[in-house]
Design goal:
mainly alpha; about 75% helix; 7 helices; about 180 residues
């Protein structure tokens, strides 16, 4: 990874940390949520790194089918062990769950897995950070939540870092065995 890419990663991480600090004084729950988000980011990076290797020899369809079905079974096991209800939700909640599944999972994550065949895993991992300003925008537009003033420069830092990484990254991609 070049020095410029490390600089872009640093800018993006600084933006993400600044965004996390926006609600730092809000509550203990907000801090726990930030910690869980950081842990989720670590696992997302590991997922993308592993996926980049696997995608050299496995098609997107096979890879996503295996990943998504394994994850669904693991989630089902966690829900059963935690005695979480699997039924009894109102129609609106089922529609929201369906929208999340179609939008974030089937479109978003499948797109990440598709581009891993031809794009640097660094760029793909860092682009996941776009969820942060995206979520803030959705919250502002659809949930009438205000955006803290400090969130704007944080988002600019995040986007600037991503732009530096994209402009500075190059990856010679070996042709993968499966044909998409």
């Amino acid at each position: 990874v070049s020095r410029a890419v490390w600089g872009g990663i640093g800018l993006s991480v600084a933006g993400a940390l600044l965004l996390a600090g926006v609600d730092n004084g809000t509550s203990r729950e907000a801090l726990v949520g930030d910690g869980l988000a950081l842990l989720g980011g670590v696992f997302a990076a590991l997922y993308v790194a592993a996926g980049s290797e696997v995608r050299r020899s496995v098609s997107t369809t096979t890879y996503t089918a295996l990943c998504y079905s394994t994850t669904a079974l693991m989630l089902l096991a966690v829900c059963l062990v935690g005695r979480q209800p699997l039924t009894g939700y109102a129609a609106r909640e089922w529609l929201l769950l369906g929208a999340l599944t179609l939008g974030a999972q089937l479109l978003g994550h499948t797109l990440f897995n598709l581009v891993l065949r031809s794009t640097s895993p660094t760029v793909v991992s860092l682009s996941i950070l776009l969820e942060i300003p995206g979520a803030a925008l959705v919250a502002a537009l659809f949930l009438s939540q205000g955006v803290p003033l400090l969130a704007i420069p944080a988002a600019v830092l995040l986007l600037a870092g991503l732009a530096v990484v994209i402009r500075s990254s190059s990856r010679e991609v070996e042709p993968s065995v499966p044909v998409e």
